[in-house]
Predict the structure.
Amino acid sequence: MSRLNLPAGLGGWIWLAIIIIPVYYVVITSLKTQEGYFGQNPLALPSSPALENYQLVLAADFAKYFMNSTIVTLGAVIPTVLVAFMAQARDAVVRHEHELGKLDAIAGDGDHRIGMRRGVDAAVAAADEAAGTGLSVDRVLSAAGEAWSERAGGTSGALWESALTAAGRALGNKAAYRGRDAAAAVTAFVDAVTGLGKADVGDKTMVDALLPFRDTFLAAFEDGAPVTGALTSAVTAARQAADATASLRPLKGRARPLAEKSLGHPDPGAVSFALIVTRVSDYFDSSEHLSCPGSAALIAGTGARA
């Protein structure tokens, strides 16, 4: 027979009392009038429970104050969630930067990994600083995009700045987000890249992975899939499309003069995009970020037909 652990048992009861007594005190006090509170033991049950305190709170626009507090809280939490998403993008680049460099060196100058690493590092730092100072979602993404472009330079930096800024504008500054906000952000992100870069499917660029990603995401979402389900399908499409660029000849960028050397190897821009969205999707599936109500509605929201 096991021996009783008296110190542990006593400690458990003390800890339970520390937790329960304050809650008990708040509840019984809320049911007392001012006279009842001062006229008896503060820890005693009310002799005549009263609801006057609750009526007073409700009459004083408590719902409005509670909503204001909720908006302020979500306004602080959701930008922080975005920083976590950006950190996942950085993780994907860091893990595969040598692979990206080798791909780019086949028909380019091999600087894609350097630009991506510098850009995403700067973007995460800028987003973290912006979120820490209380800036809204759109301004956090705008700051991230500007830092990415400034640090990475080149066409890739400009494209990522344009895409992140456009996604931020689509999301705007709201107290809570829904699935349609995610769909709008995806659309704006892709449209910004295609609008600035003027590339199309078949040119062997990032767009070869971007457009299948967008089209699959929107189709799944419109068909009623939740955002997480639509994202999973879109990531699969992006990865397959990135791999398929190995059979293409580059029609844009510095790789075009070395088109023959590029055959048999996927485009580094398409690959890096596929790696990033894969990592972000995995984060959605495995992390605890859905405890934030605003981000939960955005990521786990039902599809358009729901």
Summary: The domain at 65-300 is CATH 1.25.40.340 (Serine Threonine Protein Phosphatase 5, Tetratricopeptide repeat).
